[in-house]
Structure formats: structure tokens, C-alpha cells
Amino acid sequence: MTSESPLERPHDGFAPCFPVRDLEAALAHYNQLGFAVLPFESGMDWAWVRYGTAELHLFRKDDHDPARTAAAADLAVDDADAVERCWSATGVPGTSDLYDTAYGREFVHVDLDNNLIRVVSVSH
Question: Is residue 10 predicted with pLDDT exceeding 80?
């Protein structure tokens, strides 16, 4: 047993959960952006995608109303400009132009179910 506080231990991270109406369409969307689709079998109600070390948990929600129940998450990256160029080059709709903030550069991406990822590179 260790006397180490849970707040002092390194953590592996956590994954935001995004509701989707069509899981296979959502997986294709994220895969086209460059996310790796983790093992998935047709008919499952949930799936994981990974971008670098960041993960998203996608779950099928039949009564999901994109206008009322979407989710959001921030993705911290070293170079938001490079990620925006990469995602825009895919032709997948939903990626905004880059913009400057008081804390760095960012853009947003909205998926097929109105879930939002804010991609930010923080100035140091």
C-alpha cells in the first residue's frame, strides 16, 4: 500500500462521451479526420476513437436531438494550425477557420450530431 495521494499520481486521462444517432456514420466521420477507430463490431451501441493519446467515447442514443443534447470537449494540441490544415484537407465538413484568443490559437469542429471539439494550442 502506498501513502501517495490520488492527486499526486499521474493519470492516464479520461475520454469525453459524445452521443450519436448513427454509430457507424460517426465512426466513419472521425476516421476520415484521422482518428483511429478502436476494435468495433457492427451492432454495438458504443465505440472508442483515438487521436494521438486523446480518446472519445461515442455511444448510440436513439433519442439524441442534436439541437438540444449535444456535447463538447477540448483537445489540447501542440500546433492547432497543423491540425486544422490536416482536418480541413480531408474535406469532412464541420471544421471552422482558425482564430486567435488571449491564451492561444484554436478552431472548432462540429460533428454530424452537433458535438463540438475545440482544438487549442496554448501560448506559453
Answer: no
Residue 122 scores a pLDDT above 90: no
- Nearest 5°: phi and psi at 62? -55, -35
**Residue 1 domain flag:** no
Instruction: Give the CATH number, domain containing residue 80.
Output: 3.10.180.10
Say what the alpha-carbon torsion angle 104, 57, 24, 63 is, to the nearest 10 degrees. Answer: -100
CA distances to 10, 11, 13, 14, 20 from 3, in Å: 14, 16, 22, 24, 42
Is 12 within a domain? Answer: no
User: Does the structure show a pLDDT above 90 at 89?
Assistant: yes
Banded pLDDT at 70 (limits 50, 70, 90):
confident
How, if at all, do strands 17-20 and 54-60 pair?
Answer: parallel
Q: What is the number of structural domains in the chain?
A: 1
